[in-house]
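Exercise: predict the fold of this chain.
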Amino acid sequence: MAKSERKALILPGAGARGAYQVGVLKAIATLLPRRAVNPFSVISGTSAGAINAAVLASGASQFALAVSEMERVWSNFEVHQVYRSDSWTMLRSSLHWLSAVVFGGLGVKNPLSLLDNQPLRELLDKNINPQNIERSIKAGHLDALAITASSYSSSRSVTFFQGDSSLKAWARVRRFGKPTKIDIDHLMASSAVPFVFPPVKIGSDYFGDGAMRHGAPLSSAIHLGADRMLVIGVRDEHSDPEPNESIPADVPNLAHLAGYMLDTLFMDGLYSDLERLKRINIMLEQLDHELSGSIAQLRPLSTLVIAPKEDMRQVAARHVHELPRAVRLLLRGLGAMNRDGMMLISYLLFESGFTRELIEMGTRDAMEVEDDLKAFLFD
């Protein structure tokens, strides 16, 4: 494989939709030579994408084997492996929130989140060995792994990166890169969706989902030297039709607003960043004279984006019945059991029927652009 340019893999936030990323990676594994090492110099992940990124980094010596392990976990997912979903826990959480609202707060006993994701930590402890990340870097199978989380104390986006000692920290407005040894706490922090999962303490600071402040999701890989970037999105980009003015729209309920928030959180910043990158590339192409000053530091960058062609809400609607009864009751209480609510459910539906369909979808979508993938990997 060509080594003249640094290739980066960008895995944005996804929730349960992260299974789609696994499907795309599965297709890539079939295009590589047998027992090939990881083909990406830089792997950058946020939220659920951070977990997928860490699995790839820790198994970089055999890319197909790492993807196979990811597929095994995602294909057999059940909600209780990510958050506690038994009836008693759901009832206790609901009563806890209700009490806090009715009594104007419970002091130090105020609820921190809607769901308890301790099972996810146990799953990560079982399946990811952070020491293997350093082994992959020392063996030359990976230049850097970047995991982004959001600091609640400083209101900044922090990209924790682990890589060669030549890589330097960076600082921009409300975002900076910090070299560190990545562990399970960083993955839990990056995937701690606000309100849904509790914040995670790293050092003296508390962190939440990395997508919250990450206004430039491509920047981490660029700072770490990427020239080409493969981005695996988790949202189809076909806009909904304009509402019929003769039919009054429904008032958005809590589930609709929560799904809208997650969709905005995970994907809008990414596409804004892609548009910005495209404009800079066009500008550089048009400059036919010798560059000088700060603009001379700019370089053209190429991207390949693979994203679902099918509306994830429709896929989720086919599998919502797989959720535990207690979870369905909670989501029904939020008004999630309609088309608009399926946006929220698609991020929380950690059940095998849904994740397996997304893996198949990701593989199919990737193979439809096989020539582009080959050009990205081998040219």
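Check your answer against the key: The radius of gyration is 21 Å.
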